[in-house]
Write a structure and sequence with these properties.
Blueprint: E1 21-23, E2 28-32, E3 39-43, E4 49-51, E5 73-79, E6 84-89, E7 94-99, E8 105-110, E9 118-121, E10 124-129, E11 134-140, E12 146-153, E13 159-163, E14 169-173, E15 178-183, E16 188-194, E17 200-206, E18 211-216, E19 220-225, E20 231-236, E21 246-248, E22 253-255
């Protein structure tokens, strides 16, 4: 199999990758490139890279560039209904809204704590904040600005975030062995399940089988019944330091990368 390596512009100092999304309607891969302070859009066919407008650089007190895992834009998602990109910035502790066409910055909204994952569900933006042990939820206005609605407390979490196919339920983890089911409309945790992980990490959703797929840092993937939380199956993976996982519904493959 041929391998293509894409050098992210400005990434020579270090990036701090933590999230990546594919936007089917655009046929683009959305890459929040950490300390480069840009979101990059990669054409899935040509592999051409186009960056968003630059935001303020990430520097330390002496003016040197920062490049760690917790710097800059580390999570982003495309909202096809509004043609916008929503991105979380760990350094500025804000959630940014970018124009999906021009890539220009439209708005920035302060957060209560450093963001981890940013996801859109209908008319809402959900931002996980592990340091605050909560998920902040915002309404998306017609002006593309965000208004805070509420926050959901998540004990010993939240780690990762995914919605079911209806958008009525969300799933996230505690850092150790639990998965939480959340009423996405009522904004409340409704169930706590054992996922058998020593350290919970990534999450994905299999709509056809109604399964919540859980990645375990120690090298395991677990399938939970999306309604009851019952363990339906598990498999060991020959990798360690598993983080974010991905699901391909066409091939019915779950991808479990190891650091």
């Amino acid at each position: 199999m041929a391998t293509t390596v894409l050098a992210i512009p400005g990434g020579h100092e270090g990036i701090g990758f933590d999230d990546i999304e594919y936007a089917p309607s655009l046929d683009l891969v959305i890459v929040p490139a950490g300390a480069t302070m840009k979101v990059h859009f990669i054409d899935a066919k040509t592999h051409a890279i186009v960056a968003s407008a630059a935001l303020p650089p990430v520097v330390d007190a002496g003016g040197a560039a920062k490049k760690g895992h917790s710097e800059g834009l580390t999570s982003a998602v495309y909202d096809g209904a509004r043609k916008i990109v929503v991105a979380g910035d760990r350094t500025r502790k804000v959630v940014d809204v970018l124009d999906g066409g021009t890539r220009a910055l439209l708005s920035s909204t302060p957060l209560a704590a450093e963001p981890d994952y940013v996801r859109v569900n209908g008319d809402e933006v959900w931002v996980t904040e592990p340091h605050g042990k909560q998920i902040e939820i915002f309404a998306i206005g017609d002006d593309k600005k965000l208004t805070k609605l509420t926050a959901i407390s998540v004990a010993d979490g939240p780690e990762s975030l995914v919605f079911d196919d209806s958008g009525n339920r969300a799933y996230t983890h505690a850092w150790k062995s639990q998965t939480y089911a959340i009423d996405a409309k009522g904004h409340a945790v409704t169930a706590t399940w054992s996922n058998t992980c020593a350290r919970s990490r990534g999450v994905a959703f299999d709509a056809a089988a109604q399964l919540v797929l859980v990645g375990c840092a120690e090298g395991k993937v677990v399938a939970l019944d999306a309604a009851t939380g019952a363990v339906k199956g598990s498999a060991l993976a020959p990798v360690h330091d598993v983080d974010i996982i991905a699901w391909n519904p066409t091939l019915r493959h779950v991808y479990v990368p190891g650091a």
